[in-house]
Input
Amino acid sequence: MALVRGYLVFSVLVWFGYGLFCLFQPDFLVETAGVQALTATGSTELRAMYGGLQAGLGVLAMAALLRADLVRGVLITLAVLTGGLGIARLMGLAMDGGISPYTVGALVFEFGSVALAMASLSRWKREASA
Output
């Protein structure tokens, strides 16, 4: 269970921490990701997607830490959502051609997270059936 617990703790720290940071500092994304809001509506959108959604993923991981019956569903959810981010990012690279340290780091995080989620799910299944 150490792998599962470690992955969930990691997910809480990264998703919740980054989400809260982006919620309160959306202008951070201008320099790091090249993403800028042009209007108040744009700032709200950045706060919602980069802040609220990502913090919500952290809360989801925390829920699985607190309730064992949620672990399987949360691991699947994190794998699917981070996989979707990674695949969309790769498609964006293919369509737009822009690559940056932020993009590379995000891809490493996203596909690494998918691998860890799947390994955690496999470990969880083995230990749950033992």
About this structure: The mean pLDDT is 95. The chain has one domain: 2-129. Residues 2-129 form one domain. Residues 64 and 73 are 9 Å apart (CA to CA).
